Amino acid sequence: MADASPVQESPAAWSGPLARQAVELRDSLAQVAGNPAIDKAVAGLSDALGALRSDRPRPVIAVLLGGTGAGKSMLFSDLLEQPGASPSSDAIRCHTSAPYIAVHPEDEPFLGELGGWKATRVRGPSRGVVLVDTPDVDGILKEHHAATRALLERADLVVFVTDADRRANRDLLAELSRWAPRHRWFFVLNKADQHAGRVSEIVSDWDSRLREAGFEPDDRSRFAVSSVVADDPGLGRLRSALLRERDGRQVVLSRNCAFLQTASHALGSHLDSALDRMIGDLARREAEANARLRDAYASALREPQARRAFLLVTRQAAWRHLAERAGFPLGWAAWVCARAQGLATGMLLGRAIGSGAGVLGLGLALAGGGLVALRGLLPFRRVVESLGPDFRRLTASLERDIRRDLEDIGVEKLAERPMEAPSSPEPGDAVGAIAAQVDSLVRRFWTRGLDADLMAQVESDVEQAASTVARGAVGGLAGLVALVVGNALPLLLGGWVLIRLWMAWYEANYPSLGFYTIGLSLLAASFLPGLFLLAMLLGARLNRLDVAGLVALAEQPRPTDPLRRAREGLEARRRDARRLSQSAVNRLEEVRGELDALGMGLSRRLMPPE
Questions:
Q1: In angstroms, rounded to a whole number, what is the distance separating the alpha carbons of residues 557 and 547?
Q2: Bridge partners of 103?
Q3: Buried (b) or exposed (e) across 290-302, using 16+ Cβ within 10 A?
Q4: Is residue 415 within 8 Å of residue 562, measured between CB atoms?
Q5: 330 and 188, same structural domain?
Q6: Do 591 and 293 contact (CB within 8 A), yes or no?
Q7: Distance, CA of 167 to chain centre
Q8: pLDDT tens across 190-206, in order?
Q9: pLDDT single digits (tens) 130-180
Q10: Residue 223: which H helix or E strand, with range?
Q11: Which CATH number characterizes residue 598's domain?
């Protein structure tokens, strides 16, 4: 016989990580409010995690589940071969009002979880397995239902008992479906002697109903028995399958199977479909909100000055992105070009502000104008002012609509902006701290009176559009030619100059100052073809797109950020659910195989047939 040593409650090595993933997914799904499918998945994951929970070691617990008059108490006594072990009555309905528990004396100290129940104990015939007769689940006494369901929470194996007249009872089949994902099962058709000539027909019909519930019954898990026939073969087979001695390993496997099966059902197609619908709804609303915003942009920037200002700041930003994509050494020249583009504007601005203010005032004005130009704040200010109050009203209306949409779908928590830790200069970086303060002061001066949120929105949109324009400018064949030419010429010319210098210094024939001047001039000129080609490509794309096309390239405008964050949050949860579901299904097949070999009943398929 197998050793019935107390079961060790530490879960298998793989169940710990899966349980942690289930906790994280359950908590993240709980942030979505009011969706029945997601609420069902959250409850299912909680049930799955509950299947792993236990206070102390114990034997396998097998619970009889059935309706009033199905003959559970008589079956309980016959299985134990102890007449009257659980008294029954044909005259009194709902006769069993409290559990009857058959437990072997050596298992009694380990039964812990059931110790608090007001139950009648009888001696069980086998170590490692406890048999429990429960009150009905379809009678008029609701306290019976609660007692039975509390015991089912602790069960490792459930024996579903019915008879020919009750096999189609909807309440009982609903109770079966309720617990089906969490347990392994034996099915007993009791009182078979009353239908001796039709047993095969009745069993065939019952099998079809069990298949509708998602099971695949066979002779190892489904039994037709008679409690009044001496040496009934069905009863003998059931007793042998159910009450043979079991070791503690089967409890661990059974709990892990319940965890995996319940989690798999909780993360089934109903959850995936619900998330798909919500993601599609959010994507549609986001597209509609973005279209409204882009139309308002194009309408507000119709004036030539506003249009030129928007194109200017986009061009400057595009050159910054080109500097990152142009490679070495052309990227350096593109970086200088990006900074120098606004320099003339800044100098003119500085001269206008500083005229008549003396040399010091002119110098300060030129410096301030240069900073403003390098930041592009002047044209940004022009763009923000051009958007005007109508655009602000539209944005405010859009934000209200988005907030209502999120509340209607129940994902407002997912749309909350994550907290950002305040950045601070590195210790000892005094120059960086001073530069940041100067930059902040200049920015505050040149953007005073502007809507800060609108300014941030315009800057964000410009950066997104500029990044896409720069990527497209160097993405085709013409862009490849520009990069090859722009990088090859400076490298070849710079290499030639360095070789000449090295040879001259090696031969002690030191070149004159004119050689250095000519060399540097030629090196600087070698960048011009590449910059000219990039400027042509960039200008062509900007002219073709114009303001409406550039605004459309801003795929993540700030006002619709909440919709986007909610959609991305749901997409992340869908990925996590699919990943956990697949892991659970893969592991479940292994655990089921082990339990099948140990005769621990039948599992429900992951999804019942349509």
A1: 15
A2: 123
A3: bebbbebbbebbe
A4: yes
A5: no
A6: no
A7: 42
A8: 988 888 888 899 999 99
A9: 999 988 765 544 555 677 777 887 888 999 999 888 888 888 888 888 888
A10: strand 222-224
A11: 3.40.50.300
